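Look over both lines:
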Amino acid sequence: MSAITTHVLDTARGRPAAGVAVVLERQVRATMGEQGAQGWERVGRAATDDDGRARTLLPPDARFEAGIYRLTFATGPYFKAQGLAAFYPEASVTFEVTDAAQHYHVPLLLSPFGYSTYRGS
């Protein structure tokens, strides 16, 4: 299991959201002399399984370190495949990893017109 995982639950249907594409990115800091963030670097990707979980976002050989990370969920295609219109074509969750020795689980509760998230265990 990777150091960052997620679980997507479709609250409108009352079941896990299978087949949601998820991209994991890490914020790239500016080099010396520059200010702020420089952008985002993709460090992993997955699709949720039948239980709505993405357990392998980071490749096994990936270096995991403290920093700012972002999960982007392709919610539009998920709802379109069900024949439903959705307000949000994607949902992005940005969070901070302060201790790379810990596991970070970031669930997403999803419906066609809203979503929420929290730090899971």
Summary: The first strand starts at residue 4 and ends at 10. Residues 4-117 form a domain with the Immunoglobulin-like fold (CATH 2.60.40.180). The CA atoms of residues 70 and 94 lie 4 Å apart.
